[in-house]
């Protein structure tokens, strides 16, 4: 029973992530258990079960007079909501089973508000007394199915529309003969729902469209019918209205002449009566009816001697005046035929109860008079922040399209066509670059981009030429490859080769190959943005993360595996497993956050093998690392269907978890199964033919078979929808597909969330009601965030940048939300600053949420349930290295695990230095001369791009002295913050690999295909036994920022200093850093406190014997 109860709770939680679920389903408030059993608590709001209204003595007018067009329309509007709810339920593979008047909640107000419930318990316990359930849905006990759900709905609608279900299902009756008050379309829908008319498959979306058409038809009929706006005028001898009319007519009509008074009112309103909304002195609004002579003040009607809430089903007039109102908010001309003027006496009032449901309501007319002003809610503002962020991302993409002049180039030796692209000045593109706060011109950035691609052997292929340079332009040439600088031309000009001659000449635009991927990502983000507009639950959670924190009721078994975890992970695991819908986990370097994720996944599948989990991260490298850790930790008897979602390729490094390979495995197993053997011959042959076609792709018979067969793609999609464990990047095609199909998960877990922008995080967040975000905002920020953070600090700059970029965004690349933002830019000066601040919070979403929780914790007077935890026990680094990281960046809160400390303190590293010039210490600092202090020293950094040749020489000398001590192949990384320095280090190391560095082959390259060298940005999340760092900067610049550059960024330095396990060797100039420190004390805005801490920690480590500072003069001497 407990397992069933928990399963139903998870089902409700998963449904909560479906867009519009909170509007169409009755929400669960809480759940619990006591000695008598298990329970869930639902919140019906102001509604009650439909059955209570249906069986009441005094029924609502909608139920008592369902044949009236207005009431019939309202019933269909309500059941449209039920149909949509049922379709959402079925989309998640859930059968209602108990659709009857008890499972629908509503209030029968003027607006449709039916919501669905009753599906929460898949197993129903019989009561002691076998009493049949009331209503059409409970009349027959049939096998539960999607079709039976629709049948129950059809029978219920028929009954409430005052139609005998027997007549609906009697095919001897023509559609027009079933009920005289229903249209043929209405009867056809009922017969479809009840299965009377055979259909291959009941399509919920089609049913909803047909119901919407019925509503529009009834509404048109009602508008042309006899329903009138009824107004009761208090015309008796003692009423204020009578005195007002007599005063206006010079007392010509006697006070007791009710018919004469009524005739005056009718004549006065016989011309063009105006319904008017007037502002009152209190700031509210009053309703008036303007005749030819008088103004009649209207109020809502309440039946006498009752406590009913007054409504404008009828209007009441108790006073009038000759004067015309001044502060008119809005007005509408009414046709005299629309009005039903009723003298309000006792006899007439008794007739009002009989008129209920037979008159037109005043309220829609009154509401139409109200100004169209829309007050933005917090949810609206949150959505606009995501939309503005997406618009800015598009603007930055526009800036990556470079203006060039195109000239013919010489053909290559292989016969390819040549073209020369010369950077040209474009005033508008230059202005856009400046507005987006790029430090260099488009021409310089193009040169750097091409140079970077050449340095890494990546990014040279797939360049495009375009005539207009609009973002998303379709008419482009995609086949150009960069081959080098054109030395014959003195200006910045670049040579490209392609298979076809170019059709473009003179002024054109050059587009990087990576732009195609960027455009695809932008389109996916726009789709996610559209989905967010309908996803009020996620918007509310992002607006107020603590708004609805609940207990998950998942057990936290404190078994031996739990006890083996460090205390920090135990606390994190307990909080994460017991909390929904949201949790944040901060993972400083080396604390084992990936291990924590693996433990969560393992426990989830041990506890509930049918769970569905989405594990996502921004980069493929992070996902692959996470996937390996998670799969390795799963016990042998736990075998969830797991897939790695990315486009299929035949890369040998891929695993069997790729979707196409999983499809092959399951399809082959299915084709050989007894199930298929006993299936219909057509189905059996189709499945086996498909399996054979997929096998053929690997044998060379048909390499494109998988991509060409629609059935194969459908089978892969089914595997993706069915998988228990999906590994996918945040912007992958698989995540896009899952959003489109509303294929939801029990849990979304996002790794490295601190490196992703809010727009990148949005897609996986849409796919589950339970979300865990893991990252560290004190390491690298999202790529390109620094410029955008500066830009968003000035609302005026944001407006100018977007205005400059929008003409270059192709029409099909835009989305309604983006257009809304452009409207805000133009008209809403006062509010735009707040929107920019909201967008800044969304840009660094993980950091915003974490800092919000840290601030909340500082309020000591309040007890809060935790939705944030920081892991604080590291397992990666030598404790000496960990202490520097902890003291510099985490205020000394990170400690080293006891077992790990013993390992490093008592053990020996798998490498050594070959002579005494470099001591065997976990931290070695090679101290370069400061260019300003050393007489005759010509070293230091060179810019731009930033490079330091002397540090390359020093790094080379360190590597020459590094030797392995066993055959374990320890890992080695050579890192720098600057691309140009990495390029020079890579070239120098490669040139020496056959001579002075041939022993490096005994070390494992920590950067995989990139070898030993990489930037700090490329190495976050990775680690190496030995890490050599070249800091580069060593100059005489006048400001802190110009002197330090990247080194001013504590996040980059955090990553740089926390990659080493056994040994960290740093090459830099301590005198230079100390000079910058002394200078920064005179600059209040300089924020380099971490550098002061680093120098102090280094000195402390040297005194403790954990670090050695080696002057470059010592290192460069021959041993």
From TrEMBL:
GO terms for molecular function: ATP binding; helicase activity; protein kinase activity. Residues 1-215 form the Protein kinase domain. InterPro entries: DNA2/NAM7-like, DNA2/NAM7-like_C, DNA2/NAM7_AAA_11, Kinase-like_dom_sf, P-loop_NTPase, Prot_kinase_dom, SF1_C_Upf1. This is AAA domain-containing protein. It comes from Bradyrhizobium barranii subsp. barranii. Pfam families: AAA_11 (PF13086), AAA_12 (PF13087).
């Amino acid at each position: 029973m407990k397992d069933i109860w928990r399963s139903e709770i998870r089902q409700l939680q998963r449904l909560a992530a479906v867009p519009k679920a909170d509007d169409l389903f009755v929400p669960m408030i809480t759940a619990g258990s006591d000695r008598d059993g298990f329970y869930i608590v639902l919140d019906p709001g102001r509604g009650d079960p439909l059955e209570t209204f249906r069986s009441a003595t005094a029924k609502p007018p909608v139920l008592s007079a369902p044949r009236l067009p207005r009431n019939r329309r309202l019933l269909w509007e309500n059941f449209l909501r039920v149909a949509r709810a049922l379709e959402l339920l079925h989309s998640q593979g859930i059968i209602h089973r108990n659709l009857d008047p008890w499972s629908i909640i509503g209030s029968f107000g003027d607006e449709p508000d039916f919501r669905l419930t009753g599906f929460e318990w898949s197993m129903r316990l019989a009561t002691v007394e076998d009493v049949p359930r009331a209503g059409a849905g409970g009349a027959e006990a049939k096998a539960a199915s999607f079709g039976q759900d629709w049948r129950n709905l059809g029978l219920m609608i028929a009954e409430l529309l005052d139609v005998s279900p027997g007549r609906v299902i009697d095919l001897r009756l023509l559609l027009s003969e079933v009920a005289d008050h229903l249209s043929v379309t209405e009867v056809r829908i009922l017969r479809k729902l009840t299965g009377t008319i055979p259909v291959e498959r009941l399509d919920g979306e089609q049913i909803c469209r047909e119901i919407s058409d019925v509503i529009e038809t009834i509404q048109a009929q009602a508008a042309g019918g006899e329903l009138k706006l009824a107004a009761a005028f208090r015309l008796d001898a003692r009423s204020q209205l009578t005195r007002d009319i007599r005063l206006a007519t010079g007392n010509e009509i006697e006070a007791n002449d009710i018919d004469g008074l009524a005739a005056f009112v009718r004549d006065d309103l016989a011309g063009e009566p105006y319904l008017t909304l007037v502002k009152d002195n209190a700031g509210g609004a009053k309703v008036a009816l303007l005749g030819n002579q008088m103004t009649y003040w209207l109020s809502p009607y309440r039946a006498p001697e009752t406590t009913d809430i007054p409504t404008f089903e009828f209007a009441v007039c108790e006073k009038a005046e000759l004067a015309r109102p001044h502060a008119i908010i809005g007005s509408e001309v009414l046709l005299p035929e629309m009005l039903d003027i009723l003298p309000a006496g006792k006899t007439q009032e008794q007739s009002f109860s009989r008129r209920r449901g037979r008159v037109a309501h005043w309220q829609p007319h009154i509401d139409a008079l109200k100004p169209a002003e829309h007050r933005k809610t917090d949810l609206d503002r949150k959505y606009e922040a995501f939309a503005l962020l997406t618009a800015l991302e598009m603007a930055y993409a526009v800036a990556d399209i470079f203006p060039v002049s195109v000239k013919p180039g010489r053909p290559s030796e292989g016969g390819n066509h040549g073209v020369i692209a010369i950077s040209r000045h474009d005033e508008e593109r230059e202005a856009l670059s400046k507005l987006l706060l790029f430090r260099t011109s488009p021409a310089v950035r193009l040169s750097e981009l091409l140079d970077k691609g050449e340095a890494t052997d990546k990014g040279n292929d797939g360049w495009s030429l375009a005539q207009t340079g609009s973002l998303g332009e379709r008419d482009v040439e995609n086949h150009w490859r960069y081959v080098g600088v054109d030395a014959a031309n003195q200006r910045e000009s670049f040579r490209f080769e392609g298979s076809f001659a170019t059709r473009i000449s003179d002024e054109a635009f050059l587009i990087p190959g990576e732009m195609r991927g960027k455009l695809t990502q932008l389109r996916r983000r726009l789709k996610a943005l559209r989905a967010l507009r309908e996803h009020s639950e996620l918007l509310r959670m992002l607006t107020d993360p603590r708004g609805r924190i609940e207990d998950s009721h998942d057990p936290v078994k404190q078994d031996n595996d739990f006890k083996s975890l460090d205390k920090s992970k135990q606390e994190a695991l307990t909080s994460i497993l017991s909390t929904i819908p949201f949790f944040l986990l901060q993972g400083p370097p080396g604390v084992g956050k990936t291990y924590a994720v693996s433990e969560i996944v393992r426990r989830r599948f041990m506890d509930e093998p049918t769970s569905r989990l989405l594990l996502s991260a921004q980069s493929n490298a992070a996902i692959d690392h996470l996937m390996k850790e998670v799969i390795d930790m799963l016990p042998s008897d736990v075998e969830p269907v797991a897939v790695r979602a990315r486009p299929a390729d035949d890369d040998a490094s891929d695993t069997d978890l790729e979707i196409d390979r999983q499809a092959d495995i399951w399809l082959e197993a299915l084709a050989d199964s007894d199930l298929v053997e006993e299936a219909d011959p057509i189905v059996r042959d189709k499945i086996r033919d498909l399996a054979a076609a997929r096998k053929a792709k690997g044998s060379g018979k048909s390499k494109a078979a998988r991509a060409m067969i629609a059935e194969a793609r459908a089978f892969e999609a089914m595997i993706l929808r069915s998988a228990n464990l999906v590994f996918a990047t945040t912007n992958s095609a698989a995540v896009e597909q899952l959003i489109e199909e509303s294929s939801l998960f029990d849990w979304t877990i996002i790794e490295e969330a601190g490196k992703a922008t809010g727009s990148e995080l949005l897609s996986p967040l849409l796919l589950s009601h339970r979300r865990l975000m893991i990252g560290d905002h004190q390491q690298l920020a999202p790529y390109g965030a620094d410029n955008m953070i500066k830009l968003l600090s000035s609302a005026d700059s944001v407006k100018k940048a977007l205005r400059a970029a929008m003409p270059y965004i192709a029409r099909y690349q835009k989305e309604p939300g983006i257009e809304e933002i452009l409207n805000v830019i133009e008209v809403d000066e006062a509010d735009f600053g707040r929107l920019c601040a909201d967008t800044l919070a969304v840009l660094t979403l993980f950091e915003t949420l974490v800092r919000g929780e840290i601030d909340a914790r500082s309020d000591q007077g309040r007890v809060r349930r935790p939705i944030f935890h920081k892991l604080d026990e590291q397992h990666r680094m030598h404790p000496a290295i960990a202490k520097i990281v902890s003291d510099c960046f985490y205020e000394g809160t990170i400690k080293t695990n006891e077992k790990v400390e013993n390992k490093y303190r008592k053990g020996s590293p798998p490498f050594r230095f070959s002579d005494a010039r470099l001591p065997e210490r976990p931290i070695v600092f090679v101290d370069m001369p400061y260019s300003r202090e050393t007489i005759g020293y010509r070293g230091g950094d060179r810019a731009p791009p930033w490079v330091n040749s002397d540090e390359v020489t020093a790094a080379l000398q360190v590597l020459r002295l590094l030797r392995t001590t066993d055959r374990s192949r320890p890992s080695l990384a050579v890192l720098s913050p600057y691309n140009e320095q990495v390029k020079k280090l890579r070239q120098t190391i490669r040139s020496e690999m056959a001579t002075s560095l041939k022993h490096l082959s005994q070390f494992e390259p920590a950067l995989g295909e990139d070898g030993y060298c990489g930037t700090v940005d490329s190495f976050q999340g990775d680690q190496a036994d030995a890490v050599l760092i070249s800091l580069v900067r060593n100059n005489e610049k006048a400001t802190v920022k110009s002197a330090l550059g990247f080194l001013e960024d504590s996040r980059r330095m955090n990553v740089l200093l926390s990659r080493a396990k056994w040994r960290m060797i740093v090459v830099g100039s301590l005198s230079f850093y100390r000079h910058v420190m002394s200078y920064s004390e005179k600059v209040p805005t300089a924020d380099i406190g971490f550098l002061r801490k680093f120098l102090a920690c280094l000195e402390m480590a040297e005194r403790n014997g954990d670090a050695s500072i080696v002057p470059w003069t010592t290192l460069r001497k021959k041993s």
